[in-house]
Amino acid sequence: MTNRIAFQGEPGAYSHQACVETYPRMEPLPCRTFEDAIAAVREGRADLAMLPVENSTFGRVADIHHLLPESGLHIVGEAFVRVHINLLALPGVRLDQIETAMSHTMLLGQCRAFLERHGIHRVTGADTAGSARHVAEEGRPELAALASELAGDIYGLDVIAQHIEDEGTNTTRFLVMAREPDFAERGENGMMTTLVFRLRSIPAGLYKALGGFATNGVNMTKLESYMVGGNFNVVQFYADIEGHPDEPAVARALDELDYFTSDITILGVYPADPRRHEEN
Fold it and tell me: Where are the transmembrane segments (predicted)?
């Protein structure tokens, strides 16, 4: 056991925040890419990986659903992290001194109203934590970053305006990945099961395949399709359902799904984050 949890991004990124909030006793391990974070777990340099999969404002994280089935890892948990955006500047700088704010393009868009109200120009940075680091290194009082409070702590910046996002419910969902699956019933908020499947080529195949979830009262919280290998004729479906595969209703629904599919892979069985129900 390394007691490390890998994440994509620089120290102070929102993925880093997710690690600190969810596993405060583990050492966060920053990685350059999602693939690097997955490899860190697969190769034993970290025990877990914290990977963002979707955001309540911007939808799913690009490419992540392609990576999960091929990762060789298993989902063992989820974490819903509230994305609070802050204006960070050099110590002692006042808000009226700020002329330009730097951040990832998504965060710049989420703070449009605040920035326009204060006449602050927007400059796109590679990411949120990297923008905070850049502001600290540049040493220019007129330049600020949009990032987490954690990034401010790490790079020695002051929070001169807190929680400035336009949407008050912006939340990112993360999946926790491990080398080995954990099918044990755990947690106090029910279980989730994530799977991918490919349909057999039959008329109304998707309608028939999903019928078992409806007739057995199994709630499917997410269903997405995406092409495999750049082939329009090969489509894989990604689904999240409430419940454990051993529950009779879920088992019956999965049996019916199996009849209409050529391949089913369970990516993970894990406890639902309590904030899942709060967000709904």
Answer: none
Cα–Cα distances (Å) from 78 to 115, 146, 249, in that order, read: 33, 25, 23
Using CA atoms, how far apart are residues 223 and 169, in angstroms rounded to an integer? Answer: 22
| Main-chain dihedrals φ then ψ at residue 207, nearest 5 degrees | -60, -45
Identify the helix (H) or strand (E) that includes residue 183. none
pTM of the model: 0.90
CATH number for the domain running over 4-83+170-178: 3.40.190.10
Selecting among 172, 193, 194, 261, the annotated active-site residue is 172
The one catalytic residue among 80, 174, 197, 213: 174
**CA–CA gap between residue 203 and residue 172 (Å, rounded):** 36
Which DSSP state fits 13? Answer: S
CATH superfamily, region 191-277: ACT domain (3.30.70.260)
Annotated active-site residue 260? The verdict is no
Identify the segments of the chain with pLDDT beneath 50.
Answer: 279-280
pLDDT one-digit tens code per residue, 104-114: 988 898 899 99
Residues of the chain with CATH 3.30.70.260: 191-277
CATH number for the region 86-159 comes to: 3.40.190.10
